[in-house]
Amino acid sequence: MELINKINELKEIKNIYGIFKIQGHLGQGGTSIVKEAEFENKKYAIKFFAKNTFNKDNIKVETTAFKRFKQAHFNLLSIVHSGAILPQLHFDIHDTGDIKIPYVIMPKADFTLEQWRNENNITFEDFEKIFNNLLNQIEAIHKFGIIHRDIKPSNIFMLNEKYVIGDFDISKFDENIYCNLAKTKKGDRLANYHFSPPEQSNKDGRVDNSSDWYAFGQVLYWLITKKTLRGQKDIKFDAYDPKYQKYENLISKLLSEDQDDRFHSKKEIMDFLKSKEKLSTEQILFQFEGIIAKYTCKHAQSQFAFEQYNKHADIQEIMDDISGVVDKFHLWWSQGYSDIEIDKIKQLDIQEQIWLVHFDEIKIKSIWVFKHSYPLGCSLFVIETEALKPVGVYPDAYSWEAEQYAVYNGSKITAEEASAGWAEIDGKRVEVHGVENRVRHFKNEIYFLAPQYCGPLIRHDDIIDKIYQQYKILQKVDENLLEALKNIKKPEIPY
């Protein structure tokens, strides 16, 4: 408290450049106090380290927090030219006679993003300018080997008509490039709960570029709603400008609690936005037909074709192609009695060919590619799956047909725990958010996969009959498939 009082009582500081007149208070963080100062008719921000650095005998004590404060300044000097950061102009120590106070001088920003948003109604045009500005700045610091770890509106500054990033006191600097006086530990100073990703509060969490992109997603959500979001993934901006709908899926993916599901670079983000550009129904069906043609090329001259693929490499290639267009093509997933729009496809086990499709966890036995070239939109994939074993979260699951469970930070929990928001993991009760719900089936299944505009999925009986006939001709009749075909038809026709 004595140190803080000393800082607040300061009227001026003197260094090799001259005398800086203290004129007001700008802000305060976990380890620092920021004051406004004037020197030669220019405004500056002076960031004072507000933790004791010297003991009662005036002997310097290099605390971890102070080492970070110092190393942030000197490491950032090498990237001032990037234009992505609030420049670090000078590091020094102010000696009051009885207390020595480290400080850094920086240019005074016009305002923070937090201040601007709290005082202004944001337009979609404002949002897109800020989006592109921050996208470039975060990408820039990553290219220089820095993970910020504390991106939030109060650490984003308007300077020279663009936003730059400040406060690198808990940043992670690449050890191969920078001096690391004090390594940032997992779980260090996490006052920024609302904007920081979940891995930063997990002692075993992995901090990487995706951690900053998560914070970027929170900033974007906050810009639109003036709130932050934990756990929920189905983001809707219906109550705001309809133009924001363009960013719903992007922000949902940025805020994924699974780091592997997030973005890791500006390129990935831009590629995703490009892939989400709205296609017409005809464009979707035509491009999907191109994928079908790849796997029925031996029957290029035929209106109908039916090919089965059960080799590991073939299944892998087909699923890679399908997963690459899941968002772009509005794919549907059907067992004949219900259609579900797929929000994700990801591989869980490459050796066993286990995939997560929407929330269904499946082990693929074979994939049938059905080509129906005219009219457009009648082709589809038929996926046969094998029974899976229970994951072990329910003692009596072996007697069930299917098991509903969830995954949180790599741990498997019950559906009831996921619903409650609390789970027992490694003997500890943990609050869980943003879990990934899954359904694991204990019997062989048949699924139909195609764009939502596909004929079979909107009950074109003649197409279903054609699939059945092809199965019969090939003498590959499967009772499970026949049952699914019965279900998918409007009027049930006995075979």
Q: Output the CATH topology of the largest domain.
A: Transferase(Phosphotransferase), domain 1
Kindly provide the radius of gyration, computed on alpha-carbon positions and rounded to a whole number of angstroms: 29 Å
User: Alpha-carbon distance between the termini?
Assistant: 85 Å
Please indicate the count of domains: 3
Helix content: 25-40%
Low-confidence stretches: 491-495
**What is the CATH domain class of the largest domain?**
Mainly Alpha
The major beta sheet can be summarized as: 11 strands, mixed
Instruction: State the CATH architecture of the largest domain.
Output: Orthogonal Bundle
| Structural class by secondary-structure content | alpha+beta
CATH superfamily of the largest domain: Transferase(Phosphotransferase) domain 1
Question: Globular, elongated, flat, extended or rod-shaped: what is the shape?
Answer: elongated
Supply the number of helical segments. 12
